[in-house]
Design goal:
It is built from ten helices and 18 strands. The radius of gyration is 21 Å and the shape is globular. Helix 1 links the parallel strand 1 and strand 2. Bound molecules: flavin-adenine dinucleotide. Flavin-adenine dinucleotide (FAD) binds next to helix 1, strand 2, strand 12, strand 16 and helix 6.
Length: about 400
């Protein structure tokens, strides 16, 4: 340890929803720890984060538990979500409310960071973590702005983060591939013949037509807004569960889906980013270091990760509160805490469902699933996948 290293009790590495939620839940559960926390973020808010920005009711329930109201952030609301195979399938809508609230992550994360600062937590922006070295008495964190020393570290630095790579260099990783495109609501008139410029309304679409082509996932098309202007967010998600060494190109199915609705992919900027997903064999902590959010593992079924990141933050705060009251920083109970929580239940269910349904690539099975077994799929989603955010409060 360098003698000039800066000392804290809790260092949170990464200021996305997982890190900010950890800080906010710590403030709520253990306010005496608040002025001993430092959050390090490599970018400056509002910073770009590739994400479709779909906030489920579970994400909003977790924010409400922190007395936060996501409607303060610019958003577009989808009144229903459609889960289709080749354009036909089932519809999910939430009674008396929007089904999916879509935010832009630069705005959402900057808002959440502001709320965290208002709660009295110190955030240092523009500090990039390079190395994380736990030892028997604490953790040394090396950054491009000097060295920090703390009792414990929370690795909240996302799918490509440094924390997990430093503390678990040999652990296997499960990562999904994603591409995303933002377009206007209407296709350009030259290309559009299919929809006569009607657009797709305030509906969030998921289409699993590419599963038989070896894509273990779906294409999406959400309403969104950029600087107050209504737009559409398109993308494709592949868990890579079917990869077998070969990875089918993602651009072609996305091009196909966009073309079906009158949009020409080549007219727009395309961006890609991975998501590290939850597998029950993942390692979630080592002595003195907890992982949260994508660093621990997001949902493999849909690649949903914002609500999960918020949920991990709550679990990590509880774990930290207990560690500081007992003086035991091994975090050996964190896996069990996750497994027993509503977050752990939904992640396990989603991993199990993804592992079963994506490898069944037959076209007839996908038709059966999304078009014929509708009531079964809706009931199973309601029981095993959705509605976990409120249960995290108990
Ligand atoms: C294309 C795409 C679409 C998606 N769409 C959705 C969606 O609609 N709904 C949904 O729920 N989820 C979606 N996700 C998943 C979601 O974006 C993530 O699960 C979520 O952002 C995880 O939050 P996090 O806080 O763990 O990590 P992140 O949001 O990645 O935050 C990590 C933070 O750590 C910082 N950081 C990284 N490295 C360092 C370092 N070395 N030093 C300091 N700071 C560092 C980063 O700058 C960042 O601020 C999508 C993901 C992708 C890629």
């Amino acid at each position: 340890m360098g003698s000039d290293s800066q000392q804290y009790d809790i260092l949170i590495l990464g200021g996305g929803p997982a890190g900010l939620s950890t800080a906010l839940h710590l403030k709520q559960r253990a306010p005496h720890l608040a002025d001993r926390i430092l959050l390090l973020e490599k970018e400056h808010y509002p910073r770009f984060k590739l994400c479709a920005g779909g906030l489920t009711a579970d994400a909003e329930a977790l924010l409400e538990g922190l007395d936060l109201d996501a409607s303060e952030v610019p958003h577009a609301d989808a009144s229903e979500a459609r889960f289709d195979f080749e354009g036909k399938g089932l519809k999910i809508s939430m009674p008396k409310r929007h089904t999916l609230r879509i935010i832009r992550r630069d705005e959402f994360d900057a808002w959440l960071a502001e709320k965290t600062r208002e709660a009295g937590i110190e955030i240092r922006e523009g500090v990039s973590v390079k190395n994380v070295i736990p030892d028997a008495n604490g953790v040394t964190v090396t950054t491009d702005q000097g060295e920090f020393r703390s009792q414990v570290v929370v690795g909240a630095d996302g799918s490509n983060g440094a924390t997990r790579r430093c503390v678990l260099p040999d652990a296997p990783v499960h990562t999904a591939r994603l591409l995303e495109i933002i377009t206007p609501t209407q296709p350009s008139p030259v290309f559009s013949e299919n929809e006569g410029g009607q657009g797709r309304g305030l509906v969030a679409f998921f289409d699993f037509f590419a599963v038989p082509e070896g894509i273990a996932g779906y294409t999406w098309d959400f309403p969104t807004q950029v600087k107050g202007q209504p737009m559409r967010c398109w993308g494709i998600y592949d868990t890579n569960m079917l990869a077998n060494g070969s990875r089918p190109p993602l651009k072609e199915p996305l091009r196909e889906e966009m073309a079906r609705h009158g949009f020409n992919l080549d007219e727009y900027q395309i961006k890609g980013h991975p998501i590290r997903w939850f597998d029950p064999s993942n390692i979630f902590s080592v002595s003195r270091v907890l992982l949260v959010g994508d660093a621990a593992g997001a949902d493999p079924l849909f690649g949903e990760g914002i609500s999960m990141a918020l949920g991990y933050g709550m679990l990590a705060a509880t774990e930290l509160e207990e560690a500081f009251s007992t003086g035991n920083f091994s975090f050996s109970g964190y896996r069990r805490r996750l497994a027993r929580s509503a977050l752990g239940h939904t992640l396990f269910a989603r991993w199990f469902i993804a592992s079963v349904i994506y490898p069944l690539k037959w076209r007839w099975f996908q038709i059966l699933l999304w078009r014929i077994l509708k009531p079964v799929v809706i009931a199973a989603s309601w029981i095993f996948i959705l509605n976990w955010g409120k249960r995290m409060r108990i």
